[in-house]
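**Sequence with structure:**
===
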Amino acid sequence: MDEPRPRRTQAPSRIRAVAHRLRSSPRLVDAVLYVCLLGVLAADAESLASRPWEYVTAPVLIVGAVTLSRVRPACSLTLAALSGTSYLVNVGGSPEWPIALMIIIGYLAGRRSADHRSALVGLSGALAVGLLIALLTGTPSRWLSMALTVLGAAAGPWLAGRYRRLRADLGYAGWERARQLRREQRIRTSEARTASGPGSPGRCTTRSATS
């Protein structure tokens, strides 16, 4: 007897369907980001209770960064980088929500915006604000840790997203060039057929000469 064939899993097709649905529904993507980032923040609620200022500013930074990630990617990246200032005054440990926010928003900013100057200005501004806070709070030694965190968690994903965008743009430009060449080839072929048709001037001249 033949052994029963194992059923083929439908996981890849389901994953592709979910990915297509996410790409075609920006609001759904933003809702998922809100839930994930606020969930990371909620997981750190116990330690945030001892830091009222961070308990208030963290949701504002998360909501603002996600909301601006489509219309103002550079501003969104700046808000995410500003979350790194929590390391300057956080003595009890290293909160996880700024890392998650900077990684996600950094990648999206690089993927969605071709303006690299605004992004670099935003990152530099966030580092400058962090340095000012460090000097005012008397913790200049922690600024280096904050700067390394911002560069690794925000600038790194931003470069990755920008690389993906450049690759997509180059691929799109290549396909557009190929389509243009095909259109030009069809036009030349059509013109050549029209010129060699029965009513072309060359054939009429040949016929009158032979007659």
